[in-house]
Amino acid sequence: MIDLFSWEQKRKKEVGFNMLPENARVFLAEDNEAVRFFVKKSLEETGHQVLVEAVSFEEAMEKIREAKEKRINVAVLDGSLPDNSSHGPKIAEALRQAIPDIRIVALSGEEVNWGDKNLHKPEDVSRVGEYVRNLT
Fold this sequence. Notes:
The chain is of the alpha/beta class. It has a single domain (22-121), classed as Response regulator (Rossmann fold, 3-Layer(aba) Sandwich), CATH 3.40.50. The protein is built from six helices and five strands, in the order H-E-H-E-H-H-E-H-E-E-H. The chain has helices at 4-15, 33-45, 57-62, 64-69, 87-98, 128-133, and strands spanning 25-29, 49-54, 74-78, 103-108, 117-120. The radius of gyration is 15 Å and the shape is globular.
């Protein structure tokens, strides 16, 4: 009989980091300074580490390699960086290509469906950390 708990622990060691969201290593892309502050605060208060931040589409795309090197396992992405509703999905796609196991949290003022979890601004901003913890 296979001990799944031991197998999972071994797999985590092999890949070098814990993929569980309660220990999330986060890539945060948000252009609004106030929203970015509160999202980061929510994430850090729930035990997550924001290791890579971007405030524009170009910066986010440039930091994908850094995200891979820092073993990011969750990305919280604004849907429009700035004022372009296609930026969030494009960043998500590039991150998924570079880091196949990454979980994406889409955070937008509009209705979106491209994240593993799709949240709405401003209502969900203060609870992003809880949503990340509960990703499955």
